[in-house]
User: What shape does this take?
Amino acid sequence: MREFLRQMVDDRKVLVFVASVFLLTLLGPFDTYSELNFFRRFAYWLLIFAGVGVFMNVLFEWFLSRNCLPGVPTPFRITLAATIAALPGAILVYVVDSAFRPGNLAPSEMFRLWAQVSVLGAFILNTVHYLDVGKGSGATLAAQSTPSSAPPRIAFLERVPQELGEDIVSMSMQDHYIEVTTTLGSHLILMRLTDAIREIEGIEGLQTHRSHWVAEKHLRAIGKNGNKWHAVMSDDRHVPVSQTFLKDVRAALSAP
Assistant: This one.
């Protein structure tokens, strides 16, 4: 839960949130400029963005990190998350608007309000996501500039101490850190698991749990202790497997 909340409130999202609130306060769209003074406009947009932002971020993180709709393009999943989150979001906008501008919105306008929140939310969430992806663009460009005969460098390996080698067995969240385990030992790295999985592209692996990732070549078996599943690794450690990823783990074990 701590990691889930931390992913909801990272630097990019805070930047987009603050910029959006101030921009809409200054511009005063939807007649808020003429009907509300500066401080009431600021409070109006702050409440709306803070409230709607919670719904949007919960669905955003759920659809991306829980592997919902595998195979569906990421922009579509983000847009679907925004569309669903816009349902309670539109109700919140209606309540806030009624408090600041009584009688301005009629209940019959809820569909239009939901559509507006959906479109704006999808735009902002996609912007935040691709700002996040853009962090790794420098490493991507460097890989593209190397001769074709040389294999591309896996960005994540730059974070692993040389004495631990490059044969990664698993990655697990420990509060705000990732514990990366290789065949030679383990090391803590301050970053999100979703970012680490993006950077480790090129090493065959899969998530077994929201907080755990394993390399396929080190996956040996799957077991169960009570009602909890776990993956048995090549170093005999047991890595938790959630119901969400159980099917994927079984498929990886049965693959030739």
User: Anything to note?
Assistant: The chain is about 55% helix and 20% strand. Residues 1-9, 136-150 have pLDDT under 50 and may be disordered. The radius of gyration is 22 Å. The domain at 154-254 is CATH 2.40.50.1020 (OB fold (Dihydrolipoamide Acetyltransferase, E2P)).
